[in-house]
UniProtKB/TrEMBL annotation, chains A, B:
Entries under CDD domains matching the protein: Trans_IPPS_HT
Biological processes, Gene Ontology terms: terpenoid biosynthetic process
Organism: Mesorhizobium amorphae CCNWGS0123
Keyword terms, alphabetized: Isoprene biosynthesis, Magnesium, Metal-binding, Transferase
Gene3D superfamilies: Farnesyl Diphosphate Synthase
Protein name per Swiss-Prot or TrEMBL: Probable farnesyl diphosphate synthase
Superkingdom of the source species: Bacteria
Cofactor(s) needed by this chain: Mg(2+)
Family statement drawn from the similarity comment of this UniProt entry: Belongs to the FPP/GGPP synthase family.
SUPFAM superfamilies xrefs: Terpenoid synthases
Pfam families in the cross-refs: polyprenyl_synt
GO-annotated molecular function: metal ion binding; prenyltransferase activity
NCBIfam families from the UniProt entry: FPPsyn (NF045485)
Length: 299, 299
């Protein structure tokens, strides 16, 4: 409970930044952005999400005394990528979902074509934000952030994982296959969130790897908790349809090994995540809370 | 005729670069990329396109004695963006086209979901290529390329233009509206192609602006020639459906002012493009040919 208040307090400046980046004003070198497209982008982004990934960027950056405004911009870029992936995932050709967080999905509120284009524009905007001198980061770090995000979001990351997920009903992946799918589909962006903090702060390579490993651990925990909820929670609690994995015949690790096993795995992952943060002492207290929150969330 | 041979000769190293970038090998920091997704990406990219935009990148870069390998990589990135936009444009929810260059479109050869994801992955890959140290460009130029491409491809550029185009059947834009739509939908990427050459070569701001203006002029010519062909050519000649604009009731400048007016405009634009290249003398001879080719092409 307490941690949700922290999350929501940290989300406030992010919402303001996202609103600023998603208004219809003309950026330099651009012609005015069409209002209907911007409205669809705002619908997909300003929707009351928990902003977990942005929180991870900002807290990880704080470990290395990074500039807060730079971290906020990078966090906003990452949230644009996360939200674009949800917009495309919800399309009739993909998961065909009508509701997200209790609201109509973008293709329901607008139309399929606008949802495709709004997703495309959000993905593009993310790289615009990262490369822009307005982040006040040296070009070397801006380029490193673009590269790391592109790797996390592309064919060998999130989009690759979504492809494997679509195939999973038919191909019935084994345990190693499920782990690979999840590490790509949801793990890669969470890993990037934590690694990005180290890049923004100009941390040593060792710290960058440590933060990335921390991100991998909580990414895995995030997915296990999600699978557990899909099995046990109801649609009202989640604000979206549940039980869909089982209905679709999709294997999850939780379905394979049971809820008791999943809870013990989650404890192990939280311990591992906390151990990785030991070098940062008291400064890492909120990131440690985040790991516990990810593992124990009930919505 | 002669110029098509030049284009096709220049396309050969680009095809090799695209093949290399689109194989299923693992990039650093990635898990293996799913083969079906990579196959869909290759289907959408390695399809016998004329590679006009890559040619413009490479020739513009040569004006500033830029490294050829760097220009080739940037050209490949731009072609990934161009091809992603075609894949998404062809979807049933958008233009609903079954054929492109005489071949089944990606969603026909695979399925809608895979086509959406292949487009997403190609857009992401473009930024991966630009930000990668493998371009051998200083970080400052890599970041500048990412930013310029994101501006050209995003809500204030190509994707914004696609949105306006979808609305055009209903909103019936006036002449200024059509010009704006076309400058965004097809003009922005062609403008970027020429400007990118100046960025790769580390040219002065004045040269960068001059090349961008050259790109704008031939972008406009490209669209006028396209509209003229849509009115006069048959489907066999174009390798895709023609007469669609008129059938959809979409206004074009050619429909408004007639074919004679369009041909005279095209002459004017070629003259303007050539004048912009005067400072570069003999070195710009192929870019001048490109401007003529764009204005006079018959397929």
């Amino acid at each position: 409970m307490g941690f949700e208040i922290v999350l929501s307090a940290r989300a406030a400046p992010l919402e303001a930044m996202l609103r600023q980046l998603l208004d219809a004003r003309t950026l330099s070198g651009e012609i005015a952005r069409p209002e209907r497209l911007m409205a669809a982008m705002r619908h997909g982004v300003l929707n009351g999400g928990k902003r977990l990934r942005p929180f991870l960027v900002m807290e990880s950056a704080a470990l290395f005394s990074a500039d807060g405004e730079a971290a906020l911009r990078v966090a906003a870029a990452l949230e644009c990528v996360h939200c674009y992936s949800l917009i495309h995932d919800d399309l009739p050709a993909m998961d065909d979902d009508d509701l997200r967080r209790g609201q109509p999905t973008v293709h329901k509120a607008f139309d399929d074509a606008t949802a495709i284009l709004a997703g495309d524009a959000l993905l593009t905007l993310a790289f615009d934000i990262l490369a822009d001198e307005a982040t006040m980061l040296p070009a070397e770090r801006r380029a490193a952030l673009v590269l790391a995000l592109a790797r996390a979001a592309g064919a060998g990351g999130m989009v690759g994982g979504q492809t494997l997920d679509l195939e999973a009903e038919r191909s019935r992946p084994d345990e190693a296959g499920i782990i690979r799918l999840q590490a790509m589909k949801t793990g890669a962006l969470i890993r990037f969130a934590c690694e990005a903090g180290a890049i923004i702060g100009g941390a040593a390579q060792e710290d960058r790897e440590r933060l990335a490993e921390f991100g991998s651990a909580i990414g895995l925990a995030f997915q296990l908790a999600d699978d557990l909820l899909d099995l046990t929670a109801d649609a009202h609690q989640m604000g979206k349809a549940t039980g869909k994995d089982a209905a679709a015949g999709k294997a999850t690790l939780v379905a394979l090994h049971g809820a008791g096993w999943a809870r013990s795995q989650l404890n192990g992952l939280v311990g591992q995540a906390h151990a990785l943060l030991e070098p940062y002492g008291e400064q890492a207290v909120l990131l440690k809370e985040a790991a516990k929150f990810v593992a124990n969330r009930n919505s």
